[in-house]
Amino acid sequence: MPTHPNGSYADATPGSAIYVDTENLRESDHAQTVVSRVVANWPADPDRPPLSSLSLYVRADKAELWQLWAETEFPALRVRVRGVQHFSNHRAKNSADLAITADAVADLITGQAGAVAVVSNDSDFGALFVKVRELAAEADVTDIPFLWITAPDAGALSAEIEQFIPGRYRWDLSDALAAPAPSSPQPTVSASPPPKGLPEATRPALAPAAAASAVSDEAVAEELLQRLPLGRFRASDAQQVISRRWPEHPAAGDASRFGQFLVNRIWPLLRDRGVTMPRTSSPRTYEILPPAGDAAPKQSTKREPRASSHPPKLAQEATLPQLAAAVAAGIADDMFKASDAQYALKGAQFEHPAASYTATQFGTWFAKQLWPIMEQHGVTIAKEKPRRYEMTPDARHKLMSLP
Question: What pLDDT is recorded for position 195?
């Protein structure tokens, strides 16, 4: 690929650059998880340059926060955060797409990037793929330096991606997101100056934190099972437990950092012990059910799980209205998405074929089968992309009254 005109990048092979429109990835915690898994699981392909830079396109009023997070999480990568002004959803989306396209082409031409990786589920970057292919042809590069990264539950996957983009230029994150997060991801990155060592005088003060960081994830999971009462809890509840037990733990004093620590490292261990996640969007909600609670001694402040988290079991041949009623009973929040409906369906009728569908398959089934019934009884669409539904208490009551 072309190098920088002044030759500053000519002496080393430029690495791969990731471009992420965070608004395409639901809530900020989901976007952070996707970015972290991309970096941690970057393909070890000899024909694909190692990672060198990360560009994030975020709401303008959140740019500083994203910059702080990205620089802290990925110190070995060159980080760029662009704030996108929101005058309307449509214009903001176009602004982010244009900024990504302009930056990616400029980075390739100037040699700051040797390959482009875009995280998106829609076909907005088809023109960018074509342009990168043209640049590769001009540089006599046979393999197009482009990777299209798609994430499950981040909006419908564009048919054009699957139909026209060859498989070797696509990466589906389903497996990477389903697997437990590595405790300390070590991505292969381009050379970067190491951080300077701390002065000797400051090092003794770090001893308590270093000792707390040695606490195993297994110990944290067991502490939560012992101290949290039965029922639902959030990251803030778990953080209070860990802050009291290990006040110097690296994740104890920062809510955002602890939320990521909980979902990426502790949640897989809790899930193995029977803990569930009724709400997967922000703010996430976890639930300790009796089987998980019995695995460790509990405090006397036990509480019973909410009734709405356990929809009634249905007969094998339940009708669609009965399924809609059970889903309405099993959804805990007024705002929900198709994956919440699938979780509720699993609780009501685990044997139903739709309970084991993929996210895309269930979304299609829900839209054709259950959504018309729910719409008739007052459920509305609160957001189109990614789609969110809203169920008022009145609509919930009507649905739960269905025969």
Answer: 39
